[in-house]
Write a structure and sequence with these properties.
Layout lengths: L2 E6 L5 H15 L3 E6 L13 H10 L7 H6 L2 E7 L7 H8 L2 H5 L7 E8 L6 H15 L2 E2 L9 H4 L5 E4 L10 H22 L1
Parallel strand pairs: 1-2, 1-3, 3-4, 4-5, 4-6
Helix pairs in contact: 1-8
Bound molecules: flavin mononucleotide.
The site of flavin mononucleotide has 19 residues, from helix 1 and strand 4.
């Protein structure tokens, strides 16, 4: 079975929802899937006034957190981070910064990689977040598997770089049908290409 890891950071839960959607689609595509959240780096007291952040923290804090070994295990990895000032969130970057030893051994190379994000606004930096993330994946020697416009549904969500969800002015938009379809397409595509690379 092709092994897919979905490794993501999420503060207020949108990334967690997107990861679950990817997991469902990857399992339907026949993959063995490992979903891991990237651990929170902030003291929960500092976001106690934010109910969505606290709820997501409580729901995930006792689940196994992402480690470099999850990447080594996988044939393909889909990473996720919220957009913060047009790039990845600091806990996500902290996780990437912990990967130097595996990188030096070449253990991050030759795998299929793609990414997803969310932002409050439609033009708030989703594409730059994904492209910034892909820069690190090139340093890994990874095989980038962006969705492009490889299916008609990509002309509906409109993001050839990966998948992005717009969470809205109050940060509460649920996933719409176009984004769900795009997540399903990305998961299936990464599983397919990762499977070919692993042969
Ligand atoms: C420090 C910070 C910076 C942010 N920067 C942006 C931004 O540049 N553009 C944008 O549209 N939303 C921005 N947001 C909103 C987040 O992208 C949005 O809340 C995110 O989709 C939440 O994902 P999550 O629920 O997985 O944490 C920012 C939020 C924070 C806390």
């Amino acid at each position: 079975m092709t092994k897919l890891a979905i490794l993501y950071y999420s503060s207020t839960g949108h990334g967690t929802t997107m990861a679950a959607e990817l997991e469902k689609a990857a399992q339907a595509a026949g993959a063995e899937v490992r979903v891991r959240h990237i651990a929170e780096t902030r003291d929960p007291a500092t976001f106690a006034e934010n109910p969505a952040w606290t709820a997501n923290y409580e729901a995930t804090k006792d689940l196994p957190a992402a480690t470099g070994d999850d990447i080594v295990w996988a044939d393909g990895v889909i990473f996720g981070s919220p957009t913060r000032f047009g790039s990845v969130a600091s806990p996500f970057q902290t996780f990437f910064d912990s990967l130097g030893g595996l990188w030096a051994q070449g253990k991050l190379a030759d795998k299929a990689y793609a990414a997803f994000t969310s932002s409050q606004t439609a033009h708030g930096g989703q594409e730059t977040t994904i492209v910034n993330l892909y820069t690190s994946l090139m340093h890994f020697g990874g095989i980038l598997v962006p969705p492009g416009y490889t299916d008609g549904l990509k002309f509906v969500d409109g993001n050839p770089y990966g998948v992005g969800h717009v969470t809205g002015p109050d940060n509460q938009n649920e996933l719409d049908d176009a984004t769900r379809a795009a997540l399903g397409h990305l998961a299936t595509r990464v599983v397919t290409i990762a499977g070919k690379l692993a042969q």
